[in-house]
Amino acid sequence: MHVLITGAAGFLGRALAQRLLPGRRLGDRSVTRLTLLDLALEGQPPDGVRHCEGDMGDADWLRGALNGGPPIDALFHLASIPGGTAEQDYPLSRRVNLEATQTLLEYGQQQVAAGHRAPVFVFASSIAVFGHLPALVDDDTPTRPQMTYGTQKRIGELWVDDFSRRGWVDGRAVRIPGVLARPPARTGQLSAFLSDLIRELAAGRAFTCPTTPGATTWASSLPCVVRQLLHAAMFDVATSGGHRVLTLPTLRFAMADLARVVGRVHGTPAADLVRWAPDERIEALFGRFPPLLTPRAEAAGFRADADLEALVRQALAPG
């Protein structure tokens, strides 16, 4: 089985790649070849792993990387230009979030035209597709993205549905919430403060949070989201009522509750170390999340972290 991951050097991509090394299994099939795509990839690839370093926004390079191996059985498209950066650099976000996604989907079309099976195509979408949120979000909540990133992710979801309808890919688009805890890095993600809060308070360091204590958000641990991505490649679409675009189950919690649980898990006076300095833009984007119902994904076998303590314990776990 040949698996390809875009954005393989990223936070999610690295963790997913470790679960899909040659010899591991994806469902009932053994991975025999793994292709990793990103701007730069660390170290020498082990046997059966191919590193492709280049710019996802360069269509010619991307086509060459896709055509450099055997037919692809499963493709995980994680690469993207995230929220803050997408707002500041629209041309870059268009090339990566739209044009590269289209190139990847059209590879599936070409693979089918050549007589091979359509690849399973797992598209990492985002809860940013919702934009302003109503009092309750469920599977039928309309999408009204308020940022370029969310708009581009919504377009990708529609393409996944359309290419699947045509039989060119076996697509599944999953809307991922915040993933914790990301390592410190300049990723352009406005939600990075959530990971910073956990990391700093766990270490007993003071932290200024750009929300009110009662601000509520949705988030999952990294191990939880990796499990969900793997499941996305394997679940029977019939179990979700034929829906290929799913909002993933996640936890909803207040920032003050997160701080208290970090202190309890890591044995620090976390609640006393937080200074609350609300930024209206950050609060509006990441601190007013209502209750969430995800019956379609749950019927298809997707699961959230067990509770907030489980999320915090896994958020900084090694590996």
Q: How do the strands and helices of this protein lay out in sequence?
A:
Blueprint: E1 2-6, H1 11-19, E2 25-26, E3 29-30, E4 33-38, E5 49-53, H2 59-66, E6 74-77, H3 83-88, H4 90-113, E7 120-126, H5 148-165, E8 170-176, E9 178-180, H6 192-202, E10 207-209, E11 216-221, H7 222-232, E12 245-247, E13 251-254, H8 255-266, H9 270-273, E14 274-276, H10 280-286, H11 295-299, H12 308-315
Parallel strand pairs: 1-4, 1-6, 4-5, 6-7, 7-8, 8-12, 9-11, 10-14
Antiparallel strand pairs: 2-3, 11-13
Highlighted features:
single chain; 319 residues; alpha/beta; Rossmann fold; UDP-galactose 4-epimerase, domain 1; 7-stranded parallel beta sheet; 3-stranded mixed beta sheet; 12 helices; 14 strands; 19% strand
Shape: globular
User: By CATH's scheme, which homologous superfamily of the largest domain applies?
Assistant: NAD(P)-binding Rossmann-like Domain
User: What is CATH's topology name of the largest domain?
Assistant: Rossmann fold
Which strand order does the major sheet show? 5-4-1-6-7-8-12
Q: Can you tell me the CATH class of the largest domain?
A: Alpha Beta
Q: What structural category characterises the helix and strand content? A: alpha/beta
Which consecutive residue ranges, at least 5 long each, have pLDDT under 50?
none
Tell me the major beta sheet.
Answer: 7 strands, parallel
Q: Number of DSSP helices?
A: 12
CATH architecture level-2 label of the largest domain: 3-Layer(aba) Sandwich
Content of β-strand: 15-25%
Ends: how far apart? 25 Å
Number of separate strands: 14
Q: What is the domain total for the residues?
A: 2
Cα Rg = 19 Å
State mean pLDDT (0 to 100 scale).
95
Order of helices and strands: EHEEEEHEHHEHEEHEEHEEHHEHHH
**In percent, how helical is the residue content?**
25-40%
